[in-house]
Write a structure and sequence with these properties.
single chain; 169 residues; mainly alpha; three-stranded antiparallel sheet; 4 helices; elongated
Amino acid sequence: MNTPQQQARGFLSSLFDFSFSSYVTPKLIRVIYVVVVVVAALTALGFLVTAFEINILLGLVTLVILAPLAFLFYVILYRVFLEVVMAVFTIAENTTRMAGGTTQGAGPFGGGSFAGGSGTAGGFAPATPAAPTRRVDPWQPGVATQQGQPTVERPSSFGGEAPSEPPEA
């Protein structure tokens, strides 16, 4: 999941990495989950004590049904949330690896400084223009566009290529 370089970096060095080239959240996720489970257990225990103080029957119902259901609900809810967070970070790490392992664009702010230290907006290079394509306009049968200019499509039975000038209106 983590690259060897990211595993070698310690928690404190990742925490104070102002270029955002390594993530802190994947290193904290287990601790966060343990805290969530402990807080959910203490909350369920608090509900249980309060229910027994109100009424013995309510305390028994809470002990057998309500407290375990509330505990499981909150633990499952936070577990799913933390798994989604980890999936996002895994996608980011895999995308970085697929991009050639560069740190450019690896962090949430593009891996550069806040002022755009790489000279590009947020660490993203401008896209190169694509080669001109020719596609058929579905709203006007027989008319295709090439570099934004409409051209008339000729059936193959007439022979020849379509003219490059726009059709007459």
